[in-house]
Amino acid sequence: MASVSTALQSVSEGRLKVDGTDPIYNDWRDDLVRDGFAVIKGAIPEDRALGYADKMLALAESFGLGYKRDDPSTVHPDKLPVINEKGMLLNYGAPHEDFVWDVRSEDGVVKAFEKVYNTEDLIVSFDAINYGFSNRTCMPANKPWPHQDQDPAKPGFRCLQGLVNLLPNGPNDGGLIVCKGGHLLSEQFHKDMINEERIPAWTPEWYGYTEAGMKWLEKAGLEWVKVEAAPGDLIVWDSRTPHYNVPASEKQDRLAIYTCFMPVADATQEDLIRKKDAFEKRLGTTHWPNARHVGSNVAKRNGSEDLVSRDRPLNEPKLSERAFKLTGIPYIKAN
Ligand SMILES: [Fe+2]
């Protein structure tokens, strides 16, 4: 506990503002404030990260559809549970597998978000896990979809997204690509682009960059950077930072678990009740931890309900006291 209080005492009052007025911390927070993203090296020890990668591949094998990690020819949609073109496994209770919860509640992960929000009272998203298979010639094409995950009508730093990288991830290995520094120009961008037609989105909390938008970023002198990470590194980014993911390379799988936390104080009681229901039914959410959108465990395969169904995880999570708080359930007030 001593390390928690020490870490928190070293943080100035309040949460990070990410607007150029934050103090200098001499750690990854300075990168986040300046660049809109940061890599927290070794948030999870490498051996544990590789262990989680093993479990993630075992999950893909557990559906019995034919995928085998040692046989590249089995990287095929027919032999895998439904994984979308961006690599996300959203259904089948996957967001609540034991190893996914273990990653979310790793000390080095939770503490990073505690530092940003300056509170231990946090909730975590029940977001997807991402399979970037190296031999994906048979998988649906993953076209660039540069975007930010925040409603332009609500500017300012609101949400820190994160992912834990589980395998070696070099410059050409696929994964997250970000427009460095784009977060700080976001407000100006939207003022300038107010008349630009919006790319349709299912939520106002998503903004896709059109060709003209991409040109604006380029003219502003911003560059796109493929984020590199080792097994166990946590990558965090401001939701305003333009980003997307690029397909894995030919030789190296890319496995990632999304971890996004927010102060429980930012969620309503209604949110927490909906989130509890999602937890109990083992349903996924988006990256927003307040569970505004809850998913389904039924996957759609070629437009129809997948014949493979699973409404509980393969391995049920065993939540520590810390992890259970992250569900938000202990913060629900009795009537
Ligand atoms: Fe995103």
From TrEMBL:
Gene3D superfamilies: q2cbj1_9rhob like domain (2.60.120.620). Pfam families: PhyH. It comes from the Eukaryota. This is Phytanoyl-CoA dioxygenase.
